[in-house]
Amino acid sequence: MERWFSAVWKNHICSSVACLALVLLLPPPAQAATVVTHLPGFDGPLPFYLETGYVGVEEETGTELFYYFVESERSPHSDVVLLWLSGGPRCSVFSGFVYEIGPVMFVAERYSGGTVPRLEYNPYSWTKLASILFVDSPVGSGFSYAHDPKGYDVGDISSSMQIVKFLRKWLDDHPKYLSNPFYIGGDSYAGKVVPLITQYLSEGIEEMRHPIINLKGYLVGNPSAGDKIDVNSRVPYSHSFGVISDQLYEAALANCKGDYENPTNKPCTDVMQTINNLMSEVLEPACPFDWPWPMPGRDASNRKSLTEEHYWLGDPPVEPPFSCFAAYRYYLSYFWANDNATRAALGIKEGTVTEWIRCATGLPYTRDLPSSIECHFNVTTRGYRALVYSGDHDPIVPFSGTQAWIRSLNFSIVDDWRAWHLDGQAAGFTIKYANNLTFATIKGGCHIPPENRPKESFIMAKRWLAGGPL
């Protein structure tokens, strides 16, 4: 049965109903979990409920996905349950847990060794609104692993199917959350697979003809669509932000015909080389990981990931300048997660992941979902809610490209473009479409808005999850 399941998912993108029905019928094995009451570097007992553990998602290769589950600090019996994924692909969801929407964050201080970096409570944690299930996916991310190296050969479709299987097993072991409203969320590259996972879940619910999960919708931040619109929106975005001149922009328009990633003539190649050099002035400053961006037209070996910096296994990060605290926090995570006391507290299985890397590379990954736009359409027209939000200072997945593919869905406007406010000021802009689709910007937000606009991101999520207007 497992072999059949593995073969089927390779050939389905957005219509795997039969595959889902099989996943939902497989008998669940017992899952082991660890209740964590103290974390190294955090002063005193944790003021929230934290559980960690593994869920097996492929018996043949021994693939197990690691998770952090934080119960809502408000009303866990009725609050939303949110499954959260990080981008990369293969950036650990610890990024979401400690840098973005989770309940702890690193103390802003230099690390001198000798002990683990210190943690403190995050006042804008989304666990004040929801129970959050952070999952290291795809396998090879964070502490997720496979016994057989073949298990690491996954892609958009197979890793999404593994998440569906993960959820079915996790909820079998946590049945008290079955009636809670359930959402899927993620940012950057994870934003590409979130609507696919949501569609798989919705198809499974329809096929089973009874609710197996109280699925309500999904939310994605600065999401990759996988479509060429992501890359092609970067040039006009850079022009609008004054990075490239009118003359260069006009030359790109005239010679590249809207395709800036794959130049087909010398004038386009030349102008894109000039544009890329100007972009690098902004994107490769003294703070090397604040604005990672794969440059169109560059050799692939020199590109940074779509979302994050990557380190090869066995290559600890170089200490960045402390003034670049966004990068410095990433640096701290390496030492925190690889400390023996941390691994013991989290219940990490010995011999599985010898070295934790925040964003692992060098493992095979197939981008076999060419575009997620159709999945967005399919899920929202089924009646599920969707929030797509963008930091408006993101050159990696510019809000203008995201706005363009949303408009391509041809949904009618329910609430036209307007500002949404926080503390008497505009915190961003928003528009609501038919089929319960909301798009919002976060003013001044970067590629991962909760990192540099935590309060605005928190309030946006609070209002949307409550079902009200932003």
TrEMBL record:
> Any signal peptide, and if so, which residues?
1-32
Q: Which GO terms describe its molecular function?
A: acyltransferase activity, transferring groups other than amino-acyl groups; serine-type carboxypeptidase activity
A biological process from GO: secondary metabolic process
Domain of life of the organism in this record?
Eukaryota
One matching Pfam family is Peptidase_S10
Q: What is this protein called?
A: Uncharacterized protein
* UniProtKB keywords: Glycoprotein, Signal
Q: Which InterPro entries match?
A: AB_hydrolase_fold, Peptidase_S10
Source organism per entry reads Oryza sativa subsp. indica (Rice)
Describe the family membership recorded for this protein in Swiss-Prot or TrEMBL.
Belongs to the peptidase S10 family.
